[in-house]
Amino acid sequence: MKGKVIQFRRSLKHVHERHFILDVGAKNKLEASKFVGKEVKWKSEAGKIIAGKISGSHGNKGLVRAIFERGLPGQSINTEVEVK
């Protein structure tokens, strides 16, 4: 299943480098909660793979939070991830 990297998880003054907000195609918070615990993999253009895990839903519109083993580069925003 495919998803899309939306943005870093952040607040007004702090950016969580390993935390990202993903769009996995869920319509609401209830559907997004079904993805909690699933594995996520992002592949760079050079072929490098960075793995992560979905940790929870984000907001009411079906977005999810994912924590990656290492931070993704800024170029990863608006790229695809694979949800297993």
Describe this structure in words.
- This protein has 84 residues and is mostly beta strands.
- The protein has one domain (2-83): translation elongation factor selb, chain A, domain 4 (Thrombin, subunit H).
- Helices cover 5% and strands 51% of the residues.
- The protein is built from one helix and six strands, in the order ββαββββ.
- A six-stranded antiparallel barrel has the order 1-2-5-4-3-6.
- It is globular and about 35 Å long.
Q: Which key terms come to mind for this protein?
A:
mainly beta, 84 residues, 1 helix, Thrombin, subunit H
Offer a concise description of the structure.
This protein has 84 residues and is mainly beta. The protein has one helix and six strands, in the order ββαββββ. The termini are close together.
